[in-house]
């Protein structure tokens, strides 16, 4: 890497070395790498600094080194709905804007594709669907309102993507800068704390749209004319507090889901690296996609009872057939087990799991194609 043998690496030498390996890096990324290694504020890296920094890295090739330096985040394939934001996008456009738009498009497409299974899940959670199997449930939805009935509530699910993603992104960046010792090289523990905090803030701010999504999905044909009509009726007849029913259960599920999802994903990735020591490029996109689908499935399963309790609390009181039955999350938990046993906490889990892989795959593909088109 030290082309002129002067005991220092300058940005131009680093860039040429990366190009030799067909690794593209912008000037901003190169400068960040140099600043991270240099112990003083200089535009070069001396051998001692290079050696000390290299000792902390897991790989023994320049590809591994560059991966550890430059990739702060990647596509989050948790449930096919959320996306991390890489630092820069080739082509000069602001990275956060390109990835933000690409993530929004991908989320809208994946949610629409899996909307029938999502609505079936909500109806099974609240006990408002006839039939005990997925096929019987889908038939009852079609019989009640035709093909359009499969997508009731999907509009709210798509509309909330933009504000939810924006709040999550900006809160995550703010928390990352506050809690991380080195925001450019954030640790897993710091990423988890910042991510969970961002999830809590974004979920709280957009929660009325979650209420609308659930109630539109549960409602009979013609009960609501749309999102605003649903929210207006909720406030008029039940008060503003009704817009936040189930928020406690929703927030309680953020940390366990995020923690398990991250832990399983990192365990799978590290196991793959140990099993393939000679693969210098690391896991491929398809492998990471499968790791993400697996980790999100396990995380969603563990946190599912809280999601079910949240949904029941959101739907209660919306009409005469669904009166207010629960005083809070603990009361809902107790009565659900009393009436249906422990299995009652997992009603609707199967359609939720069935939608994970197509949602993840669709999100990833649409995200990549949209990002390429924008950049």
Automatic annotation (TrEMBL):
<keyword id="KW-0472">Membrane</keyword>
<keyword id="KW-0813">Transport</keyword>
<dbReference type="GO" id="GO:0005743">
    <property type="term" value="C:mitochondrial inner membrane"/>
</dbReference>
<protein>
    <submittedName>
        <fullName>Calcium-binding mitochondrial carrier protein SCaMC-1</fullName>
    </submittedName>
</protein>
<keyword id="KW-0812">Transmembrane</keyword>
<keyword id="KW-0106">Calcium</keyword>
<feature type="repeat" description="Solcar">
    <location>
        <begin position="186"/>
        <end position="271"/>
    </location>
</feature>
<dbReference type="InterPro" id="IPR002067">
    <property type="entry name" value="MCP"/>
</dbReference>
<feature type="repeat" description="Solcar">
    <location>
        <begin position="283"/>
        <end position="373"/>
    </location>
</feature>
<dbReference type="GO" id="GO:0005509">
    <property type="term" value="F:calcium ion binding"/>
</dbReference>
<feature type="transmembrane region" description="Helical">
    <location>
        <begin position="285"/>
        <end position="306"/>
    </location>
</feature>
<keyword id="KW-1133">Transmembrane helix</keyword>
<keyword id="KW-0677">Repeat</keyword>
<comment type="similarity">
    <text>Belongs to the mitochondrial carrier (TC 2.A.29) family.</text>
</comment>
<dbReference type="InterPro" id="IPR018108">
    <property type="entry name" value="MCP_transmembrane"/>
</dbReference>
<keyword id="KW-0496">Mitochondrion</keyword>
<keyword id="KW-0479">Metal-binding</keyword>
<dbReference type="Pfam" id="PF00153">
    <property type="entry name" value="Mito_carr"/>
</dbReference>
<feature type="repeat" description="Solcar">
    <location>
        <begin position="94"/>
        <end position="178"/>
    </location>
</feature>
<keyword id="KW-0999">Mitochondrion inner membrane</keyword>
<dbReference type="InterPro" id="IPR002048">
    <property type="entry name" value="EF_hand_dom"/>
</dbReference>
<dbReference type="InterPro" id="IPR011992">
    <property type="entry name" value="EF-hand-dom_pair"/>
</dbReference>
<dbReference type="InterPro" id="IPR023395">
    <property type="entry name" value="MCP_dom_sf"/>
</dbReference>
<dbReference type="GO" id="GO:0055085">
    <property type="term" value="P:transmembrane transport"/>
</dbReference>
<feature type="domain" description="EF-hand">
    <location>
        <begin position="1"/>
        <end position="24"/>
    </location>
</feature>
<feature type="transmembrane region" description="Helical">
    <location>
        <begin position="242"/>
        <end position="265"/>
    </location>
</feature>
């Amino acid at each position: 890497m030290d082309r002129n043998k002067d005991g220092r690496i300058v940005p131009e030498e680093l860039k040429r070395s990366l190009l030799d390996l067909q690794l593209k890096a912008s000037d901003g990324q190169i400068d960040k790498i140099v600043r991270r290694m240099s112990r003083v504020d200089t535009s070069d890296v001396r051998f001692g600094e290079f050696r000390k920094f290299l000792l902390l890295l897991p790989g023994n090739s320049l590809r591994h080194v560059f991966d550890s330096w430059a990739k702060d985040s990647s596509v989050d394939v948790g449930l096919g709905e959320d996306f991390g934001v890489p630092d820069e996008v080739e082509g000069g456009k602001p990275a956060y804007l390109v990835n933000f738009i690409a993530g929004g498009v991908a989320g809208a497409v994946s949610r629409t594709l899996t909307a029938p299974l999502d609505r079936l899940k909500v109806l099974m959670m609240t006990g408002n669907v006839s039939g005990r199997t997925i096929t019987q449930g889908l038939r009852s939805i079609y019989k009640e309102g035709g093909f359009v009935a499969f997508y009731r509530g999907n509009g709210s699910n798509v509309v909330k993507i933009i504000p939810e993603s924006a709040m999550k992104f900006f809160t995550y960046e703010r928390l990352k800068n506050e809690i991380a010792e080195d925001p450019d090289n954030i640790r897993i523990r710091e990423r988890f704390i910042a991510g969970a905090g961002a999830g809590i803030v974004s979920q709280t701010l957009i929660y009325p749209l979650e209420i609308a999504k659930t109630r539109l999905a549960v409602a009979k044909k013609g009960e609501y004319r749309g999102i605003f009509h649903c929210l207006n009726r909720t406030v008029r007849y039940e008060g503003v507090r009704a817009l936040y029913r189930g928020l406690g259960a929703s927030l309680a599920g953020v940390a366990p889901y995020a923690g398990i999802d991250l832990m399983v994903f990192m365990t799978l990735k590290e196991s793959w690296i140990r099993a393939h020591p000679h693969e210098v490029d690391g896991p491929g996109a398809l492998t990471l996609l499968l790791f993400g689908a697996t980790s999100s499935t396990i995380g969603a399963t563990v946190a599912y009872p809280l999601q079910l309790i949240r949904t029941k609390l959101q739907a209660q009181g919306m009409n005469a057939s669904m009166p207010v039955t629960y005083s809070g999350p603990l009361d809902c938990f107790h009565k659900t087990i009393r009436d249906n046993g422990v299995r009652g906490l997992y009603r609707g889990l199967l359609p939720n799991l069935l939608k994970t892989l197509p949602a993840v795959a669709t999100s990833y593909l649409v995200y990549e194609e949209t990002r390429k088109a924008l950049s």
